[in-house]
Amino acid sequence: MTLVGCDLHTRKQQVAVLDTETGAMDERQLSHAGDAVEQFYRALSGPVTVGIESTGYALWFHELMQRLGHTLLVGEAAKIRAMVVRKTKTDRRDALHLLDLLKHERFPLVWIPDPATRDLRALVTHRMRLVRMRTMVKNGLHAIAMNRRLTLGPSLWSQRGLAQLQGLALAPHTTQRRDESLQLLTWLTARIAALDDRVAAAAQADPGARLLLTHPGVGPLTALTTVLVLGPVSRFPDSKHVVSYTGLAPAVHASADTCRLGQITKQGSPLLRFVLGQAGLIAAHAEVDLTRHYRTLLRRRGRPKAIVAIARKLLVRLYIMLRDQIDYEEFRRRGRTPRRQEVPPPALA
């Protein structure tokens, strides 16, 4: 077997190669320009296992390894770095360290989605970015309107509000900004509607997403994003690991008898956290238990912390539904535990 520790960068990579049968070692630096990388990996003999750190802009490398039939292992960068004792960091040391972890079977693996899942993630991400762009355009139009004492709030996007906005007498450059912003808003709204249809179709095609759609307040975007980000839920031992994986768990600073909880770690998918925050507010008005929980936290902790708590609670519910392959009605039925009947005390003789 051939083991390769690869310190992958954007324009180049440092590799350390070990042939486990002969013990031969090879170290070199490969440039990503041209076909030098493909020729190097194609020339390796026997079953080849390549280990890299989790990094961005590496899909081309994933596809290359899959095309060549090599096994690609992706490790968690934080854990890999924590295993290094020396503070000196070079590309050569990193490649040798990755090779050593592979050789001693201590490589900290992370889950990598398949190409179809990555493509669906691109659909959801593209939709969310267009929504942010639309929000920026709306904010700019709101600024133009309020500077002319047109304070309609959300009613600005009604037919009456848009007519008043278009009827404002503005300076030439501001007029151009308003007209082009309105055209861009129309285009973005149409594109987002088309993407919403594609997201809904993808959610209906996924069995797990269909189960999540039965929960009040959970729409196609929330259901599909949850399935795509979490992946196989069997890899999580319990709901605490899911909450931590998503970044909704509070930071803990504990020493001796002192334990302090900080803000949420945010060490996870920002897309899923945003979607859960939006869906949590809708679910908090559509489901009785969540409504009661949200109002209690709203009085005690304030709106921001209440939103985070509801998002975390909704995530745990969705995880249980995916883990047990049940819909919302079955989830509610399992949560209704019958009260134990009180047994009357025995009569005194």
Summarize the structure.
The protein is α/β, with parallel strands linked by helices and 349 residues long.
SSE string: EEEHEHEHHHHHHHHEEHHHH
| Silhouette | globular
Global Rg: 27 Å
Q: In whole angstroms, how far apart are the ends?
A: 83 Å
Describe this entry's structure for a reader.
By secondary structure, the protein is α/β, with parallel strands linked by helices. It is 56% helix and 13% strand. It contains 14 helices and 7 strands. It has helices at residues 36-43, 59-68, 77-82, 91-103, 115-146, 159-166, 172-205, 207-212, 220-230, 239-246, 270-286, 288-301, 303-324, 328-335, and strands at 2-8, 12-19, 25-31, 48-53, 71-75, 250-255, 258-264. A 5-stranded mixed sheet has the order 3-2-1-4-5. It is globular, with a radius of gyration of 27 Å.
Write the layout of secondary structure elements.
Elements (H helix, E strand, L loop, with lengths): L1 E7 L3 E8 L5 E7 L4 H8 L4 E6 L5 H10 L2 E5 L1 H6 L8 H13 L11 H32 L12 H8 L5 H34 L1 H6 L7 H11 L8 H8 L3 E6 L2 E7 L5 H17 L1 H14 L1 H22 L3 H8 L14
Please name the defining characteristics of this protein.
349 residues; alpha/beta; two-stranded antiparallel ribbon; 7 strands; globular
